[in-house]
Amino acid sequence: MQMVFSYLDSLGRKVTNNIEYTLKVLLMVYLSFRAAFRDQAQGLRTIFSVVSAQIYFTGWQAIPIISVLALATGTITIIQSSSQLSLLGGTEMIGNLLVVIIVREVGPLLTALVVIARSGTAVSTEVGNMRANREIEALESMGINPLSFIVFPRILGGVISVICLCFYYVAIALLGGYLISRLILEMPFSFYLASLVSAIAVEDGFLFLIKTAFSGVIIFVVSCYQGLLVKRSPHEVPQVTTKAVVDSIIYVTVFNMSVTAMFYLQQLIKLGVI
Length: 274
What we know:
Layout: H1 2-38, H2 44-58, H3 63-88, H4 94-132, H5 135-141, H6 146-181, H7 189-199, H8 202-228, H9 236-271
């Protein structure tokens, strides 16, 4: 019985720590956006130059790896789904299947994981080194709020980059994957395009935007928050970077699963199943 109570006590402490961590991250989002529009010591032009640099690094420079992953997953998904559906006589359902797999699930999640691996690690390392080298203290001595100059541009640039990268991923996976799959399959492009167009609904676009936008916020807020936790030693930087990657993967995955579960629960309610 004592072991049960100790386990429940440790579980309660973990839940409390996670809630406190989440509240701190949300508070930093609010403070960074407020500081960006209220503290004008550095000027909006300087802020948006940092935003453009973040978009260039996170978005533009990630296009090659996103292209390879999109072509691979799109081609494999189209070949496997069309071959299996043709056996069952439901080839016209290929558009619905691709929308569910690529647009709703794989696209947002895989894009977020790539951004975590590339940009999440870079941001947490950069902010951590700035903290260790006392560059943030230098900004504060000049009257510049670090939240408006460091955190806000990276969040805004990261969200824009994740949305654009995911849209690019979906386009390449659906169109580029079809072109490569034509080497194996005999499927008219008009039939394939009509199946996709008839399958895409407004709910898919809404789900797509929610997943990509909030995944971008989660990645860059967690990365900046962990970087700011560095005290004085540069040896802390690899530790906070690892923590940022792990936390970002957990939060993004749980968020995507929660949104998907809520979406399909709503669909079941509409159908009268629940």
